[in-house]
Write a structure and sequence with these properties.
Layout: E1 2-3, H1 9-23, H2 36-51, E2 56-61, E3 69-79, E4 84-91, H3 100-115, E5 120-126, H4 130-138, E6 142-153, E7 156-166, H5 167-179
Parallel strand pairs: 4-5
Antiparallel strand pairs: 1-2, 2-3, 3-4, 5-7, 6-7
Helix pairs in contact: 1-2
């Protein structure tokens, strides 16, 4: 995983376009008329958010093929006082079901809990997005409920499941992994 730079525009754009049909049903930004200008705008905003400590976006890439964009993972503060961050992610369609997303989110959790001292991480996952639900389950998140009509996507209000993981749960899970 690495921070985005302007040089990532072509590979990010290619990854989004290759997966647009699938991303379109879950993410409001993944419109079928998505353009290269949208990619450039995202990169500009991502770099500004890093400078201003508003959000942290990472590009997921293979070590053996660093020019191929696999997906994104991001996190941002929901409550600085409550030490709560939200995490978002997507993986290009031809790289799903390989554990890449689970590994990337786990690395973000390490940063959030260990480096930044956060108390809770949350996910909002569109109801029906079973692949994203599996990532949450594998990482020990607790499904807290459903947020009704949480996000407007393609003119339809979409319910989202709300998941959370506390720092103490994360640490207990990590200790359990090490004990195996």
């Amino acid at each position: 995983m690495q921070r985005f730079t302007r040089r990532d525009a072509a590979t990010l754009d290619e990854a989004i376009r290759s997966s647009l049909a699938e991303l379109n049903q879950w993410l409001p930004w993944a419109r079928m008329d998505y353009s290269s200008a949208d990619t450039v705008a995202f990169l500009r905003e991502s770099m500004a958010a890093w400078r201003e400590d508003r959000a942290w976006d990472y590009s997921i890439r293979w070590k053996h093929d660093p020019d191929r964009h696999i997906g994104n993972v991001s996190f941002w503060p929901v409550s600085r006082l409550g030490k709560i961050v939200e995490i978002g992610y997507w993986i290009r369609t031809d790289e799903t079901r390989k554990g890449i997303c689970t590994e990337a989110v786990d690395r973000i959790l390490q940063e959030a809990f260990d480096s930044m001292g956060q108390h809770k991480a949350v996910l909002r996952i569109a109801v029906g997005n079973h692949a994203s639900d599996r990532v949450a389950q594998k990482l020990g998140f607790t499904k807290e409920g459903v947020l009704r009509e949480e996000l407007l996507i393609r003119g339809n209000w979409v319910d989202h499941s709300h998941w959370s993981l506390l720092d103490r749960e994360y640490r207990a899970m990590r200790r359990g992994e090490m004990a195996r």
